[in-house]
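User: Hi! I'm working on a homework problem where we have to compare a predicted structure to a textbook description. Could you give me the structure for the chain below?
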Amino acid sequence: ALESAATLGLASPLARAASHPEASIRAAAVERLSDSGDKKTTLAVLEAARRDSETTLRLAALRAIAAQSKRLGADSVRLLARSARGTAPGERWAAFKALGTVRGEAATAAAIELLQGIARERSEERRRLAMLALGDLSERSDVAGKALFVGARDAAHDVRDEALSALAAYVARTQPQAELWQLLVQNVRNSVQRRVAIAALAYQGQHDKSDKARKELARRVEGLPKDTSPALRIAARLALALARGDEPPVAILSELYGR
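Assistant: Happy to help. Predicted structure tokens:
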């Protein structure tokens, strides 16, 4: 019945089911809320579910809020922000993951602003989770991608590694290999940019099924002048070795360069 109501876009039956005595039915109803119902009613139902005594329903509410974010706009982010400050670690993580999946211009802008603020807080856990969410948002937003630079310079290694992983993936998606190579060559003494460049070149190689990126990188490495500094030569060969493997580049870089 819930599937039928969702398919037909019937908001009222789903809203009523969201207050059903059975938690499993409430959770199913919340996740199937129509995206064409009254916005005020939808927000009320989702807020009630977010505060429910059952963990299953609270987690379902977070997923539903993110799914409805394009229609609900910044209001969806306000609800998720409350759960991001919750006492249960699992729910905090789920709230940040939901923040990373919001859609729509208003919700995305609100989420990025919220996460940028959290990136300056004292809590290391919240700063790391903010980088996690910004990394997800960077797949659709350049503003989110650029915001990762703050975390890449964080004093806490967990925060820094989370940011570097996301930042390298973002740069790899948005920059051609030639630009990444120049980033490496020109910034070999800048630890942050060096690690981003190495990891981004590695990501490109790992995700290129045609092998073109790896061959092009190998050509660049082998073409380094004889008077190239040992530091740059090592960094370039490390990028090539990681590009040919399948291990997460940032994790390996953290071990090699130190945290």
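For your comparison, note the following. DSSP finds 17 helices and no strands in the chain. The mean pLDDT is 87. Good luck with the assignment!
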